């Protein structure tokens, strides 16, 4: 028995939290061949593998989150200098993940759409 989670189960969890957050204009799809959720044609969260998802966030925010919770957020050489933050899906609570999904959606959403989203 392994501690990894099926990628479909991860995608279902993301979809449930995205719906719960009432994020508009979500497009399920692929990003570099991996399951992802997009807004305005841009991926804001991607399921990388059975243990990791990648959020789109500003580089300075990545640093804050990695410092705040290194058990959840991390970076490999591939992501240095890019606005993408890997996280350990099994280590993050639904509450925290929902907050990060909102943050990533806000980062990627077109300005016009962002103006219609009233959540803080």
UniProtKB/TrEMBL annotation:
Superkingdom, natural source: Bacteria
Record-linked Pfam families: YjbR
Protein name: YjbR protein
Annotated source species: Rhizobium hainanense
Highest classification ranks of the organism: Bacteria, Pseudomonadati, Pseudomonadota, Alphaproteobacteria, Hyphomicrobiales
């Amino acid at each position: 028995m392994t501690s990894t989670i099926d990628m479909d189960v991860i995608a279902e969890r993301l979809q449930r939290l995205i719906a719960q957050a009432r994020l508009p204009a979500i497009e399920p799809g692929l990003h570099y061949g991996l399951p992802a959720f997009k807004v305005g044609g841009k991926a804001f969260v991607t399921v990388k593998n059975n243990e990791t998802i990648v959020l789109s966030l500003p580089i300075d925010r990545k640093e804050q989150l990695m410092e705040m919770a290194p058990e959840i957020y991390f970076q490999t050489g591939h992501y240095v200098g890019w606005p993408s933050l890997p996280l350990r899906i099994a280590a993050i609570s639904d509450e925290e993940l929902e907050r990060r999904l909102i943050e990533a959606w806000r980062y990627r959403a077109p300005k016009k759409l962002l103006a219609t989203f009233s959540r803080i």
